[in-house]
């Protein structure tokens, strides 16, 4: 039989618990803390990986934008140099059977 000394007060409600119950509760609480810590660590790692991936994508997109701007500049310059020598009608027109038709 259990005697009064075998019980301890353990909780905010001053409910008597056996020492073995206290140990079990303490183990569960410790296990829960470890699981929460592990979950937070994994969440942080996933966020860091996502951030790194987004930075890499952002960098690649900035490089692509710079390359496209450079290409646009080269093509625009080339077109401007070509226009004085071009025999085709100016922008917005084209020839059909020797008839000048304006683009709508």
From TrEMBL:
Feature: compositional bias, Polar residues: 9-20
Any one GO molecular function term: RNA polymerase II cis-regulatory region sequence-specific DNA binding
Biased composition (Basic and acidic residues): 21-59
PROSITE patterns: BZIP, BZIP_BASIC
Pfam families recorded: bZIP_1
Domain BZIP: 22-82
Coiled-coil blocks: none
Stored InterPro entries: AP-1, bZIP, bZIP_sf
GO cellular component: nucleus
Name of protein: Basic leucine zipper ATF-like transcription factor 2
Organism of derivation: Haplochromis burtoni
């Amino acid at each position: 039989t259990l005697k009064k000394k075998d019980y301890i007060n353990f909780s905010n409600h001053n409910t008597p618990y056996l020492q073995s119950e206290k140990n079990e509760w303490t183990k569960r609480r410790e296990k829960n803390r470890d699981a929460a810590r592990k979950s937070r660590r994994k969440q942080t790692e996933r966020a860091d990986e996502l951030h790194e991936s987004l930075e890499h994508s952002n960098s690649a997109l900035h490089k692509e934008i710079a390359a496209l701007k450079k290409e646009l500049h080269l093509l625009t310059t080339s077109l401007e140099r070509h226009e004085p020598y071009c025999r085709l009608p100016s922008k917005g027109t084209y020839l059909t059977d020797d008839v000048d038709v304006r683009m709508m």
